[in-house]
Write a structure and sequence with these properties.
The chain has 722 residues and is of the alpha+beta class. The protein contains 22 helices and 29 strands.
């Protein structure tokens, strides 16, 4: 009985006397105010930047802790602990580049200001878990400050994903699997990346610079929020779940938008391996250097509990070995500087002018992203991928280069000025749509001949052609007309491809049975203006025909090093084009009762659950969407497909966060977020922006406190939200 009383007294004491951690968290929470506007968007105010970080990550966890945790499970190579054996090689791939012990050491040696922010980040997440015991972490029960370095910017995770999982499994798993050089050729063909436009004062009605922020990501990938502090921080925009900086957004004086670059920033080295007994070495010049070996253990969830799989992994000075090809081991080199990356990611948000923003670019860690920039001083700029190493132009770095040849080594990183750069072009506009930089500002664009081939591997794309169409020779842009440009409905790819189809039909002999079968479809396409809309039947026909052609010719186009568009237009037969139209007409009739089905009846936005991998069902509520895949030149991108059991197609990527921003003495912005901010079904803000999103109906952004008046849903301190 005495023992029971003692235990009860200890338990009561633990409930009434906060631990040092809890006391610290509660103290910091008193320095933070979270104001939720009528869209649920958190506007976080802290006394210090660290307080703002504490509050904004707390707010993120409130809105979708699952996505926060999963992003760090992925970044640290710990997905298999939650998802099981199927994620082992994904985890191995991450751990080849991200070592917790290395991150801990880098955290310890970080500058104090950055360490303070990382501490606040971990504390905010842990305080959320303390206050919400019902939020059951899948793996990470406690966040440590060094973990922030595992997900420090927008490039490295994507760069690592260039490493083929199939090839990795074949090499380290000893399994016979279908191996390709990269997984890129096996992924869905839906383009990824983003759009960014900047309008100079000379081209705007207000004589202020304008910026379009239009990331094309998977839906619900980022939260929209504002973070401010008494130390001068004031950043608004899209925050990748779990990160403590605004990734694409603006402050009171400047804005930034990242797009995916085609710069060659990841290289493969073919290593000549020499085996002498149990010793492995590789040739380098006249030397034989030892291959470094290490053990990596991957824990994973199994039916009987947690299990582990151990790998012996190999490295050369170039990087980890990831596959074998033609008798050579292939190692991978990429940028991996998390402290500098996190520094650049955060300090970018506090830059007030081009000089300060340019200074952040000197850190050179936003490797595979371009940047579109605008500010209150009237500057607009295009800045190319930020970590492009000098290389010997004699070698083709798009393929594995000879690792034994010292001439293939990376040299110093190209400076910002040595990379494609456009600052305040005379034409008054610039853009990027994940295309090359050589059309970024029309006639004022960088010249391809001035740069090595590795500086850019992308070519022009249909979105780029479309962007030029809506930007060139236009004057007096406003926020609304910039929004209209971003949602312009012209489909540039079909403006080129449909006339080829029409010519095929016109040249077909009258005896061809497809002549009669397709007469009505061709007549409809002939009168089409190449613009998408939810009520358009020609859009339906064109998209489904284009998809059918794409699937049938893609491999052939790649084998001949042609774009799919050129292959469809120049290398396919008339009969093949017509047969594809007949095939999709029959499919549409079978699935929807008639091929005359409006686009919006098929192309839908649906959000049924908060799952990261969404389910879809034709029986569930959904919303028609007029815009289409960016593959066809749609600036407003909507990557959709059918799913098991569905006939309609449902979007999962494309336009996610969209904002147009005007800079001047003050900032004005309009924005919309796909679906809604909160990931919990039943929340008021789970799907409250869906209709606006589908229509491109951007809402006013409440950037200043006076704008929040009358639009405040609630105001509270972390831990006091109930």
């Amino acid at each position: 009985m005495k023992r029971l009383a003692l235990l009860l007294s200890v338990a009561l004491a633990s409930c009434t006397t906060p631990s040092p951690d809890v006391a610290r968290w509660e103290q910091q929470a008193r320095n933070v105010t979270i104001t939720r506007d009528d869209w649920g968007i958190p506007h976080v105010k802290g006394k210090t930047d660290a307080d703002a970080v504490f509050g904004m990550i707390y707010a993120q966890a409130e809105d979708d802790f699952n996505r926060v945790e999963v992003n760090y499970l992925n970044a640290m190579g710990r997905l298999a602990e939650a998802e099981g054996e199927g994620a082992i090689y994904r985890d191995l791939r991450m751990k080849l580049f991200v070592d917790p012990r290395g991150l801990q050491a880098q955290y310890a040696s970080s500058p104090e200001w950055l360490k303070t922010l990382m501490n606040a980040w971990a504390d905010g997440l842990n305080y959320y878990l303390y206050n919400h015991p019902q939020a059951k972490p899948r793996v990470i029960a406690r966040f440590e400050p060094w973990m922030a370095l595992s997900f420090s910017e927008g490039s490295i995770g994507g760069d690592i994903e260039d490493v083929s999982l199939r090839a990795l499994e074949a090499f380290y798993g000893g399994k016979q699997v279908s191996v390709v050089a990269t997984d890129r050729t096996t992924r869905p063909v839906e383009p990824t990346g983003s759009n960014g436009f900047a309008i100079a004062p000379s081209n705007s009605a207000s004589k202020h610079a304008l910026l379009l922020i239009n990331p094309h990501t998977s839906f619900f990938f980022r939260e929209e929020l504002q973070m401010t502090s008494d130390e001068g921080l004031n950043a608004y925009g899209a925050v990748t779940w779990g990160q403590f900086f605004v990734y694409q957004g603006f402050n009171e004086r400047a804005g930034w938008m990242h797009t995916s670059s085609g710069a060659d920033v990841v290289d493969e080295y073919a290593e000549t391996i020499v085996k002498k007994g149990d010793t492995l070495s590789y040739r380098y010049g006249k030397e034989e250097r030892p291959v470094t070996t290490a053990k990596i253990t991957i824990p994973y969830k199994s039916a009987s509990g947690m299990a582990t799989k151990e790998f012996t992994v190999y490295r050369t000075h170039h990087g980890p070995v990831v596959r074998e090809a033609d008798g050579k081991w292939i190692s991978v080199k990429l940028m991996n500087e998390p402290v500098k990356a996190l520094t650049q990611s955060y300090t970018r948000t506090t830059a007030k002018n081009y000089k300060e923003f340019h200074a952040t670019m000197q850190l050179h860690t936003n490797s595979s992203n371009n940047t579109i920039y605008a500010d209150g001083e009237g500057n607009v700029a295009y800045l190319h991928a930020n970590h492009v190493a000098r290389r010997d132009p004699r070698f083709d770095f798009t393929k594995p280069v000879d690792g034994s040849n010292p001439a293939t080594e990376w040299g110093p990183v190209h400076s910002v000025e040595e990379s494609p750069l456009v600052l305040n072009p005379a034409n008054g506009w610039l853009y990027n749509t994940n295309n090359w930089p050589y059309s970024a500002a029309g006639a004022d664009s960088p010249k391809k001949a001035n740069y090595p081939a590795y500086m850019e591997t992308y070519v022009e794309n249909p979105r780029g052609i479309h962007a030029i169409r809506v930007l060139q020779d236009k004057k007096d842009f406003t926020l609304q007309t910039l929004r209209d440009a971003a949602y312009d409905s012209y489909l540039t790819a079909f403006a080129d491809l449909v006339p080829v189809l029409l010519k095929s039909y016109d040249q077909a002999p009258a005896s061809n049975p497809l002549k009669a079968k397709l007469a009505e479809q061709i007549a409809m396409l002939r009168s089409w203006d190449y613009r998408w809309s939810a009520v358009s039947v020609p859009t339906t026909l064109a998209v489904f025909w284009g998809e059918e052609m794409w699937r049938s010719v893609r491999a052939d186009a790649e084998s001949e090093d042609m774009t799919v568009y050129d292959f469809i237009a120049k290398r396919t037969t008339s009969e093949r084009r017509l047969q594809a139209l007949a095939t999709v007409s029959d499919q549409l009739a079978a699935n929807f009762g008639s091929w005359k089905t409006p686009w919006g009846d098929i192309n839908r936005f649906q959000r049924l659950t908060g799952d990261i991998e969404q389910p879809f069902a034709d029986s569930g509520a959904s919303i028609p969407v007029g815009f289409a895949s960016s593959r066809w030149g749609s600036l407003a991108s909507f990557g959709a497909r059918s799913y098991k059991g569905s006939k309609k197609i449902y979007g999962t990527s494309g336009n996610s966060f969209v904002a147009v921003v005007e800079f001047g003495d003050s900032v004005r912005a309009l924005a919309v977020t796909a679906g809604g901010l909160n990931g919990v079904p039943g929340s008021k803000h789970f799907n409250d922006q869906a209709e606006r999103y589908a229509k491109g109906d951007l809402r006013e952004v409440y950037f200043y406190p006076n704008q929040l008046k009358g639009h405040t849903e609630r105001e509270y301190r972390p831990g006091k939200e109930k």
